[in-house]
Amino acid sequence: MKKAVDILVIGTEPPCPRCDLLGLLLQQEAPEGGNWVLRHCAFDAPEAVQLGTALRCRIGTAGHVASAADIHMDREEVYRLAAGPSGKVALRPADRWSPELDRALEPCRLAAPAAGFLMTPVLVIDGRVVHHGNVPQRESIAALLRKELRGAGF
Q: Which residues form the Thioredoxin-like fold domain (predicted)?
């Protein structure tokens, strides 16, 4: 029997809108009945810290990257965007995500590698970082999963 493909989202705990949405999209796009396991861990969990150490970088949030790279980040605006539209009831954090939230954090995502960071959310498949820093479009996630699962023999 083939080993299950390990899909890990490294983010905040509890998951922020971006980390939660990435996990939700992965669940929706991963093939049904496939031999895969989807997990989530916090960026400061031992597993994430160990991965960062092995890659000679740190794993952190946009706030960590902004501090390390000396980037001005309008935290109030980011928190407002992460709270979601006023009057909308969010059933889960992913319901509060918006493209504007990713756009507001884009300067941090772009600065993350030079600052020595992988920025959350970080997508790791079978121990390899395949994406980090924002929420890829659904089509990109589906293509990425097809490629990675095919490479694992699925």
A: 115-145
Q: Both tokens of residue 102?
A: 């990713």
Q: Are strands 5-11 and 36-42 parallel, antiparallel or unpaired?
A: parallel
How far the first Cα of the chain sits from its last, in Å, is: 12
Rounded Cα distance between 47 and 122, Å, is: 13
Sign of CA dihedral 124, 42, 30, 107: negative
Query: CA 136, CA 3: separation in Å to the nearest integer?
Result: 26
With CA atoms as reference, report the closest residue to 101 among 112, 91, 111, 93: 93
Tokens of 76: 């109030």
User: Could you report the per-residue pLDDT of 77-114, keeping only the tens digit for each?
Assistant: 999 999 887 766 768 999 999 999 999 999 999 999 99
